[in-house]
Write a structure and sequence with these properties.
heterodimer; A: mainly alpha; MetI-like fold; 0% strand; B: 265 residues; mainly alpha; 2 domains; 11 helices
């Protein structure tokens, strides 16, 4: 096969296979006549009816708020804790047992406790829960990023008499930034999962709540529509983050490209 | 003389640092609860929780629940490995197949497995099948992606050399592709084993499948706060244990690999 035909075949496959999967799903669900697996077209109609945009304000906005607030807190706390821990080996030794323990903890195990501790089943508890577990990717990547900085850079700045806060702002944070951003991306994906989990437990609004209620009332079509929405939400948030990352880290890629190997 | 003594004292303090910091945190917990900064009803004292944990550990029921959770974890991880590695090798070695399934994979991968719980509730039911499906679904994606990356990263010169020695496709797979993909698979296994534990616990908590998750749910429903904290502590230790085992396994699988040859600094 010629190179050109091969290239065309790849493009065709990239479009045809996903389309084929969707068509197969539609045909199978249409012929199966199963209440538990409604037709794909039925799910999509329901999706439009619910999420574009009649229940958007009522349930999607609260979920997005929780993700946003939890993620934002996690990023700030993760970096604020990660900088001293990255710079000081002693602080790192002291903190590591705690970090290792809490990040190995399966998050749902703390869901009931978070309600007891925060005295709330409203946004406060949901955001606290999301934020707590989203700290770890940012924190660990900040520590690793700072440990990976060329010591000559920091030493040179020190010997030029640059004060410590300026060193952190101008050298440590920019040098660790690409890795911090990588951690933030993992945190954002985690935030979506934590949002769903927290809304399964004692909630009154949100996408996870809709999922739970539709299950409890055997409303299968809305349930499927909510599952599709959560998938779309995760995909779109990741995509947006990649777009922002590309802008923010443009200097980094340019710098890397200019370096000889 | 004094300086060496001082230095030695400093290095002993350094070595004890992790222990001291854990002790300090536990002490702080005790004080916070005893002085009522956080009411003992909401945060039982550390000693109370440890005692509750001790009582749990003495019962057979606790170990039974723990084993059920571990079973869900192991089965899910096993099913995911058996599926993800061969599929990953196929999708990684064929450019056409990789492109064909790129969009479906990119779309399915970020779906939080937790979103599937209501669906499993109504289809497979609240049983081991659901737990294994959920854990396997979550553990599948990191393994698949790692395997695909690994296969794409095989040294083309090694493959061409094998080809010029007239090694057939299966022998190439067995002697070249698989060995050089193993580091990636091992990393995928480590990531997936954490995911798998979380999902096994999640399935038990939300679907009422017997295991540690269900025990937490019951403690919560009956307001047994001491027991709730004790179970959470135990779950954390299980998480740490699984993390340590999978990290050790990864290191063992990679003994020969250059990434493990760094001198400890």
């Amino acid at each position: 096969m010629s190179a050109r035909a091969w290239r065309v075949a790849k493009v065709v496959a990239e479009i045809a296979v996903p389309a084929g999967i969707l068509i197969a799903w539609q045909l199978w669900t249409a012929s199966a006549h199963q209440a538990r697996f409604p037709r794909l077209s039925t799910i999509l109609v329901q999706f439009r009816k619910m999420w574009l945009f009649s229940q958007f304000n009522e349930h999607v906005v609260p979920s997005l708020e929780r993700i946003g607030a939890g993620f934002g807190i996690a990023v700030v706390v993760g970096i604020a804790l990660g900088v001293p821990l990255g710079l000081s080996p002693r602080a790192r030794r002291a903190a590591m047992p705690h970090i290792e323990y809490w990040r190995a903890m399966p998050p749902p195990a703390l869901l009931p406790i978070s309600i007891i501790l925060v005295h709330s089943i409203a946004n406060r508890q949901k955001i606290a829960f999301i934020a707590f577990f989203c700290i770890f990717p940012v924190l660990l990547n900040t520590i690793d990023g700072i440990r990976g900085i060329d010591p000559t850079l920091v030493e040179t700045a020190r010997s030029y008499g640059v004060p410590w806060h300026e060193r952190i702002r101008r050298i440590v944070l920019p040098a660790a930034f690409p890795q911090i951003v990588a951690g933030m991306r993992n945190s954002l994906a985690l935030a979506v999962i934590m949002m769903v989990l927290s809304e399964y437990f004692s909630s009154t609004s949100g996408v996870g709540y809709v999922l739970l209620i539709s299950k409890n009332t055997f409303q299968l079509v809305p349930m499927w529509a909510a599952i599709v929405l959560i998938g779309v939400l995760g995909y779109v948030l990741n995509l947006l983050f990649l777009l922002v990352e590309r802008r923010v880290l443009a200097w980094h890629r340019g710098w890397r490209a200019a370096l000889p190997d | 003389m004094t300086s060496t003594v001082l230095r030695r004292a400093a290095s002993v303090a350094d070595a004890l640092l992790p222990v001291l910091s854990v002790a300090a945190a536990l002490g702080l917990w005790e004080v916070i609860s005893r002085t009522g900064v956080i009411a003992a009803r909401d945060l039982p004292a550390m000693s109370t929780c440890v005692r509750a944990l001790w009582h749990l550990v003495e019962t057979g029921a606790f170990w039974h629940e723990l084993l059920l959770t571990v079973r869900g974890w192991a089965l899910g991880l096993g099913v995911a490995t058996v599926l993800a590695v061969p599929i990953g090798i196929v999708l990684g070695s064929s450019d056409l197949a990789g492109r064909a399934f790129r969009v479906p994979i990119e779309f399915l991968r970020p779906i939080p497995s937790a979103a599937l719980i209501p669906l499993l509730f109504l289809t497979l039911g609240t049983n081991l099948k659901s737990e294994v499906f959920l854990t396997a679904f979550g553990a599948f994606w990191p393994l698949l992606v790692q395997t695909m990356y690994g296969v794409r990263d095989v040294d083309p010169v090694a493959l061409d050399t094998a080809r010029s020695f007239r090694l057939g496709p299966f022998e190439r797979l067995y002697r070249v592709t698989l060995p050089s993909t193993i580091p990636y698979i091992a990393t995928g296994m480590r990531i997936s084993s954490t995911v798998s534990l979380i999902l096994a616990f999640t399935a038990e908590l939300f679907m009422g499948i017997p295991g540690l998750g269900q025990a937490v749910n019951i403690a919560q429903a009956f307001g047994l706060t001491d027991q709730l904290y004790a179970l959470a502590l135990a779950t954390g230790f299980l998480g740490v244990a699984i993390h340590l085992v999978s990290t050790a396994a990864e290191r063992r699988a990679l003994r020969w690999h250059p990434s493990q040859r760094q001198v400890a600094s």
